[in-house]
Amino acid sequence: MAKQYSFYPGCSSQKGASSSNYLTSTNSMCKYLDIQLNEIPDWNCCGASIGYAGGGELPRLALSARNIALSEKHNAGQDVVATCAACWLATREAKERLDHSEQMKADANTALKEAGLVYEGKQKARHMVEVLIEDIGFEALGKGVKKPLKGLKFAGYVGCQTNRPFGVAGESFEAPMYLDRMIETLGAEAVAYDQKVTCCGGALAFSEPEKSQKQIKDIIESAYDHGADMIVTPCPLCQANVEIYQGEVNKRYGTKFNIPVTYYSQLITVAYGGSAAEAALDGQLIRATKLEEIAK
After folding, report:
1. Of 129, 176, 203, 216, which is most buried by a Cβ count within 10 Å?
2. What's the rounded Cα separation, in Å, for the pair 142 and 126?
């Protein structure tokens, strides 16, 4: 029987959005792993960084509380799982705050009452990588590999949101190894480099591009210097920033970066025998041609 989870896609990863290739490859990956994702009906944006810009704590937490309340109503008994690092962080933070403050929980429920909802806090908030690591495990993940990603070298770029303040259980904040282990489980080589938890600059890509592009340059440069063919990440914002702004970084610094930035779900899909279309490799701006070759 398929393992069932209450799925929160998030704005960027939903169908037709900037990271829709993440959703496509996640769905393909889950098909191979016998995981059923039950989308939360009428879910809303988590607020992400703009929720901290002046809206206040209660409105920000109420956004995520509404998603959890909808999940409790429609997908009872299932953990809430997000693929987006920002969505996971917002949902996890909201649950932590509401579960440890009766007053905040009461205030949030006053707001939710207008929509006929109640937040109870019965479901866990988890990132998809936590499901892969904790519910399936690396050994079981390795058993499904049909096309080992031999000869490929990946820089596992965790980024900052799935790393702090909560992180993945048992992982170091300074040097988390779960992406490296996942890469090696799929038959590829995980390169050791010094930028795996560096922030990509997030929303600074718009407001202060010179600062964000310096961060991106450092990440890519370190990956290149340590021999990586590709970068792999669990975060759609990290994927977008590090891929999309390589051209701008090249103009600013006179570099010639052209490194694909992929998702772990794409690697797993290809390694499990999935096609390039199933892995949504056609959604890359910088084509992951070496991964496409294996998919063929």
Report:
1. 216
2. 22
4-58 pLDDT, tens digit per residue, is 999 999 998 777 777 899 999 999 999 999 999 999 999 999 988 666 666 788 9
Give me the pLDDT at residue 50, please: 66
Give span(s): CATH 3.40.50.11810, the chain: 137-295
pTM of the model: 0.95
Does position 69 have pLDDT exceeding 90, yes or no?
A: yes
Residue range(s) in the chain whose domain bears CATH number 1.20.1050.140: 3-128
259-293 per-position pLDDT tens digit: 999 999 999 999 999 999 999 999 999 999 999 99
Structural contact between residues 115 and 237, judged by C-beta atoms closer than 8 angstroms? no
User: In this structure, which CATH number among 3.90.640.90, 3.90.550.10, 1.20.1050.140, 3.30.565.10 belongs to the domain 3-128?
Assistant: 1.20.1050.140
| CATH placement of domain 137-295 | 3.40.50.11810
- The closest of 271, 46, 261, 236 to 150, measured between CA atoms, is 271
Site of tokens 């992951």: 288
